[in-house]
Design goal:
- This protein has 340 residues and is an all-beta fold.
- It has no helices and 30 strands.
- It comes from Streptomyces rochei (Streptomyces parvullus).
- Keywords: Signal.
Amino acid sequence: MTRRTVLMAAGAGPLTSGLTATASGTGAAAGSDVLVVVEKSGHAVGFYDVSSGRLSRRVALPQYPHEMVVDSRRRYAYVGHYGVRMSASVGEGGSAVFVIDLAERSLVRTIDTRPFNRIHGMGIDDRDRLYALSEEKAVLLGFDTPATDQAPTRAVPAHGLKTHLFALSRDGERAFVTGLLSHTVSLVRPHDASVPPLVVTPGQLPESSCLSRDERTLYVGARRSSALVAVDARTMKVVRSRTVDGDPLRVYTVDDERLLVTDIVGRTLTLYSTTLRRIRSLRLEGIPAAVSFHPHRPLAYVSQLDTDSVAVVDLDRFSVVGGFDTGPEPDSSALLPSAA
């Protein structure tokens, strides 16, 4: 995919460069899907009309926002203020969660999380309770009513060092927190700090993880070990591991049978079975970071850090079928499907 080439997304129409749009646009055309993208080095959240690739609105934020989640009604997005460019960056970072009104496409509130700083991992459960992870303090914060909360309503120790990301059970009762410096994944109970954690070392530099659809297995990418690891989500014992190519930055559950892994060294996406059998790889133009998925169609939206673009990937054909330019260093994203 070249950055200014018009490409066709499966059933989505032509996708063109987002750089031709203005930040003060009037919004996506009626009936269009919209991709909301955190642009971490652009210090903003961008709204892109997927049918045209055009930027319809950009919401400015303080420096270096990173992770984002969206509530079940698609009313609000919650963005963690990490405040530094990457995990190796030195600095106190940010101490806030930004609340974005997705209908108005504006920043409506900022939740102060001090003294908990370097807010990175974000999660939301099936009751729309919000969770945010302080990397510096190794504490998982909870917000029972994040649309109105002015501060965290709970906090539990994350039981790791440099706690970066977490996977969350649908009911919010279990969180699996990765520690970049402790090389651990900790099972903690966000609503009961009295429950002792279960901790496993799946390999060196575990960063991303995801739960299987039945929530019985946790899949972890151990970056420095170049390994994909399956862990029993109840006992936290490693049940299976395999060596993979490159640097497995992010791991996602696609469906009951498939996982998707981004490799930032090989610039590839790779599909694996849930038994860790390699299925197929796809090389991309840029460095793949975060991925989001269409809720109703087999499409993945892959943020490419170094080309400042999003690639649209058909997961059935496993090929790039579209894409568009974004602001600097796109990271996490969320697809807002059209109402039509």
